[in-house]
Each structure stands twice: as C-alpha cells, then as structure tokens.
Amino acid sequence: MYEKVKKEIQGICKELLKEGLVAGTAGNVSARVDDHVAITYSQKHYDQMLPEDVMILDMEGNVVEGKMNPSSETPTHLEVYRQRKDVNAVIHTHSIYATAMAILHKPLPPVIDEVTARLGGEIRVSKYAQPGSTALGKAVVEGLEMRSAVLIANHGALCCDRTLRDAFDDAVLLERACKIYMHA
C-alpha cells in the first residue's frame, strides 16, 4: 500500500544527497499519505537509503509499519502536517548556506524573484527550540506561517509543499538563494 511513496522518498533522498543538501544522516524526509505519514528512519545514511528504510506513522506518531526508530524530528513533521492541511511533503535539510543563515539568525530577504513566487516571500528564522522537541515543531510552524520554507535557528532548514518534488525544488531554491545572499 505504501510502496510507491517509500520509493519516491528514497529517490528524493538520493537527489538531496546529490545536490549537497544533506550529508551522512543529517536531515529527514516525509510525505502525508491520507491519515498517515511516511518518514525516514533515524540515523539512516542517505547513500544507503532503501524503500524499507521509510516507516509509516499515524498523525499521533504511533508506528503503523516499520521496526526502527522514526526520525528524531518526527514531532516537527507531524506538527507541520497537523497545522498545514495544504502540505503533503516535508523536507528538513542541513545544507551549508541555509544552515549558516539559521546560525546567524538572519532571515532571507526575497533576493531573487523566485523566493517570493515559490517560497512565499522573506524566509524567517524560527525561534530556537531543542531539536526533536514538540516545541521545535511549534516554532517551525510559527516561522513558516503560510510559506514553503523556514530557517530553523541554529539548526538547518525545512521546506514543505504539496508534493515531494515541490518540496525538493523548494529546498534547492532556498539553498541557492541563501548562497546568493551570502555572496552579495
């Protein structure tokens, strides 16, 4: 039942690695499937990601399918899905330039037109909260408002959209815009 979304997540993970948006085990990917969420396992290397490395949870975080631990950022993914009915995919990265902006607590102004057109305007930095906490999920949702991206204070970035492909494209654009801004 979930094989298609698991394969899609595996493919997106490989593309994130190829684009340099993730390294090692840092970051995570999820997709909404009806009343469930498909999400990557915790501590799984992107270059070794397989469809069976994606588990299925209900919206409360209970395991429906899978034997490993879900991503440590599961509370954040679930909070985004609960608060944003328009979102069906979440990608959390630790890309270099977006993370640098998050460490500096600098919002990303709409330095190129696509930031407004695709991501929703200035990209805010969320309030700091402990990674993996419910508080981080709430801070991320507050920082997102109705945008497709947020910089996570002292941590990284999160992009969300209607599809995994759209969220991936958002993550690529966010990193590119942060790089342009840092070099301007």
In short:
With 184 residues, the chain is an alpha+beta fold. 40% of the residues lie in helices and 18% in strands.
Structure description:
The chain is α+β, with helices and mostly antiparallel strands. The chain has one domain: Class II aldolase/adducin N-terminal domain (L-fuculose-1-phosphate Aldolase, 3-Layer(aba) Sandwich), CATH 3.40.225.10. The protein has six helices and seven strands. The chain has helices at 3-18, 74-83, 96-104, 113-119, 134-144, 164-183, and strands at residues 28-33, 36-40, 54-58, 63-65, 89-93, 149-152, 156-161. The protein has a seven-stranded antiparallel sheet, sandwiched between helices. Strand 1 and strand 2 (36-40) form a beta hairpin. Helix 1 (3-18) packs parallel to helix 6, helix 2 (74-83) packs across helix 5 and helix 3 crosses helix 6. The chain is globular and about 45 Å long.
The succession of helices and strands, N to C, reads HEEEEHEHHHEEH
Give me the number of helical elements.
6
Mean pLDDT over the full residue set: 97
What Rg do the Cα atoms give? 15 Å
CATH H-level superfamily title:
Class II aldolase/adducin N-terminal domain
Distance between the termini: 47 Å
**Helicity range:** 25-40%
Strand order of the largest sheet: 4-3-2-1-5-7-6
- How would the global form be characterised? globular
pLDDT under 50 segments (min length 5)?
none
- Beta fraction: 15-25%
How many structural units, i.e. domains?
1
CATH topology: L-fuculose-1-phosphate Aldolase
Overall CATH class: Alpha Beta
What structural class results from the helix and strand content?
A: alpha+beta
Second-tier CATH architecture: 3-Layer(aba) Sandwich
Count of extended strands:
7
Major sheet characteristics: 7 strands, antiparallel
